[in-house]
Amino acid sequence: MPAPTLFIDGEAGTTGLEIREKLADVPGIEVRSIDPALRKDPAARRDMMASVDLVVLCLPDAAAKESVALASELGADAPKILDASTAYRVDPAWTYGFAEMAPGQAQAIAGAARVSNPGCYPTGAIALLRPLVEAGLVPRDFPVTINAVSGYSGGGRQMIEAYEAGTAPAFELYGLTLEHKHVPEVQGYSGLSRRPIFVPSVGNFRQGMLVSVPLHLDALPGAPKAAELEAALSAYYPQGGLVSVLPTAGETRIEPQALNGTDALELRVFANEAMRHALLVARLDNLGKGASGAAVQNIRLMLGLA
Ligand SMILES: NC(=O)C1=CN([C@@H]2O[C@H](COP(=O)(O)OP(=O)(O)OC[C@H]3O[C@@H](n4cnc5c(N)ncnc54)[C@H](OP(=O)(O)O)[C@@H]3O)[C@@H](O)[C@H]2O)C=CC1
Ligand SMILES: CC(=O)N[C@@H](CCC(=O)OP(=O)(O)O)C(=O)O
Biological process (GO) annotations (predicted)? Predict the structure, then answer.
């Protein structure tokens, strides 16, 4: 059988390059490139799309929408689409590309024509919250707050250049209008009816991420122990997968960079039972499971290579 074919629209950008590099380690996929001089030419992009099985969009939202319109012009010849932008993440016609999010999600991705790749922060937040909401431990309308810190690579080329030139602050909170673009996907796929407060931040390290959710245990229905939250998370994720739930015994701190270069996602429940306080923490590589690692996982599923 011929190798499945793939085109990365936006392959010269940060995300496109990362995916391309990772695909070099995946045998059995033929990656086709467009003449750089024609990379923004709609007709050339449409022709390229017509020649491949899967197109991966690594473009700003507006350009991603333009590409989807071009693909739609191809009718039955349209390739499958994996979109890395935020344009379609909560569109019900698209499948959300977080394979471990729910039983059957990997199969849904494998069978879908259009898949949106999750944002980095939502990957951590949804992984922590969805199992607890589904188990009834966190009510859908619970007033959830999510704090997170990312390496500066999450901010794209301009932020990378500012940090590497030494002109960016060592650490800052941002998104302080409380309208970050990731909130709708976090809320939707966690199953929350009340909009969570999301406080992102960025620090002077290239790569790595922590996402944390503080909880007053006595404010939850039935006032559960922290161990019950941990048990619900452990029961949700199959052993040996990319998502693991780890004990916290004796740990009093956690840093964001330990999973860099991997596609792993670690979840922990820190707690002080005497105070009835818990802190859910997700750790991931914002460029791994938070971006191109997840994209390659979805590419494999969509091309039947997983
Ligand atoms: N979790 C995830 O899946 C992540 C997704 N992203 C998303 O990926 C997308 C790309 O981000 P990033 O790689 O950081 O951005 P970059 O700016 O690094 O890359 C975007 C690329 O798209 C090209 N481009 C822009 N407009 C067009 C067009 N109309 N036609 C063809 N090519 C075009 C750009 O070319 P030029 O520079 O010449 O304009 C550039 O090469 C964004 O939507 C971002 O939100 C980002 C990080 C993580
Ligand atoms: C540090 C930083 O600025 N991070 C980015 C998110 C990166 C990401 O994954 O966003 P998309 O996949 O949705 O593009 C931000 O907060 O906008």
Answer: L-arginine biosynthetic process
